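Example record used in the benchmark description.
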Amino acid sequence: MGVKSDGSYGVDTGLYYSFPVVVSQRTYNIVGGLELDPDTTTHIAHTTRLLRAELDDALAIDEEMPPVSFDEPTSATAAAVNPCHTGHISP
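Model output (C-alpha cells):
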C-alpha cells in the first residue's frame, strides 16, 4: 500500500512509497524485518533516488513561484495561479 515512509527499507522518511502493510482497526503498520534480495534492495534504492529528485524538483518550482493569497481573490491572483486566466468568461 502506498504510505508515508518512516524510513523502513531504506526509503527516505516522509516519501510516499508502496510498502507491505498490515491493516487492523483502520490503522496500518508497515511490515518490518523482511529479508530483501540484492536486486530488490537495488531497485528500492534507485526508486527512492528518483522520488527524492522528483520531490526536490517540485519544491524548487514552488520556491520560484510568487506568493499567492487566496483570502481575497482578484483577477491578478487568478492570473498568478493560472496565467491563461483573464478574469473574463466567454459565452
